[in-house]
């Protein structure tokens, strides 16, 4: 693939899509938009998520990884009134909403198109169902298999002496998704070019697949009979079939134009067929299809596949070996064209999948981003917690320290409820144990993130140790690095350069690894502003209270750490990143009532999250660091003037988003 270009946001950058759909058709539709730069936010039910996550091979959700790439995820319980209010607020600043509930369900939820259009007159609403929003079948379950049967597809698919054959993939859904993407672009064009109003797209699974099975209705009118199943043969051309070779392999051949059929006859040594009245023209060959197949198939059956393909290729005949997926991945053309690309994956290392299609010369698709492996569980006061926060801001209410060499703690960390787990390679790991902890890191990261927590690795400060840590920690399973003892901005930039090289080496998305910078010395405190703004990778800043106090010769308590902690908070705010910490120390966890009071006070000062070393503190942080009703109300009021205008270009990389919009993003 081409080198990552941070400016390549795709031609649909600025288009915001809310995807409420489940399973295949809606995900196929929004995938087309996301691949070309639209901001697609998947709205999923808590705990379960999209059922597509559970279409798995050996516990790996392959369908989800492919069709949720380039998308963000948000959990909302749409059975709750507050969640409906949140969704209406989101729809007010969206361009497209996609849903595939049964007809009428959207109205029951209080999200009828009229209601949505009152909030956002330009909203394009795509309603996907099996049979459409009207008609006697509108309330029937509309899974693709039923539609593939009713549409006439199955009756044409298969062999005449066998049962009708359903496709081995979600064909009706896929076709509907492609039609839906086209319809969405038409509707957006209407809004953009004519300053028009939004509209409702009534997209059934039935009509798109019926449209692609050919002129069946016309043929029936002409002949008075339904066309029969023909297996791999064709109603319109001959020879056209799948033929077996001597070595037990298969070849597909299609001679759908006259010159191609004549080439085939010459290659097989039957030039006489070119002038034979039975085979001279395509209509005559179709009438004598079985005879043609017996002659052509007999010649092929007497030879190995490689020999047949060599002769056909030399004669420029349209034929091919029948490939399975192993053949496809090994094919030279597929590899040269990069038909299959790989994305970093937390479960299997690399996830191969189809490249963005089609290829546009001037406005190609955006750089690919892997699908989120799991949605986070809703906690605290929120109606839902995003699996990845919209925009360029990361938010952690709680970060739990776990020694990176302690398997017992690592195995338990995933169910502690923390937004992030810090795998600590520094203070909690003795120097002789660090190589073992690094070797464990990939498996440890997968373990602690099982319930959706982000993975943060705290590395060591001496440069030699830092480089060893980076070699182990810059992997797709890790979200961020915690950088202790950041004395100046140059140190942050040096590490960023090293991380960038490692991301390229591991074929990760550039900028995937973020930084939490730690101020831990008097020198660093005086440069806190420069350190916080040192690099776009910076996601948060924190004062390392105990180390800072030791460097200053002071007692590490709330009184002595008050001013330095606020200094780092102000530096984080100025840089547009998250301030982490509490007006206390990370070790204060014995008295949970006192912890709660400290966290509550810290929240008032503007801290948005904090780390802790004991699991008992995690629920307190999750609850107290969640935005209050007043903060959410402020965020809602500020969000609208801050949002890009309809049709505008969203600047997701902005460093100056107001803190209140980050509170909104949590919801």
Write the layout of secondary structure elements.
Blueprint (H helix, E strand, L loop, with lengths): L15 E4 L4 H12 L3 E6 L17 H6 L3 E5 L5 H11 L4 E4 L5 H4 L4 H7 L4 E6 L14 H7 L2 H4 L14 H24 L5 E5 L1 H7 L3 H8 L16 E5 L5 E5 L3 H10 L14 H6 L1 H13 L3 H10 L4 E3 L3 H6 L1 H6 L2 E6 L3 E6 L43 E6 L3 H7 L6 E5 L9 H15 L5 E5 L4 H11 L6 E4 L5 H17 L8 E6 L2 H4 L2 H5 L5 E6 L1 H8 L5 H18 L2 E3 L11 H14 L4 E3 L5 H7 L4 H14 L16 H7 L2
Parallel strand pairs: 1-2, 1-4, 2-3, 4-5, 5-6, 12-13, 12-19, 13-14, 14-15, 15-16, 16-17, 17-18
Antiparallel strand pairs: 7-8, 8-9, 10-11
Helix pairs in contact: 1-8, 8-9, 18-19, 27-28
Q: Main traits of this protein?
A:
667 residues; 28 helices; elongated; disordered C terminus
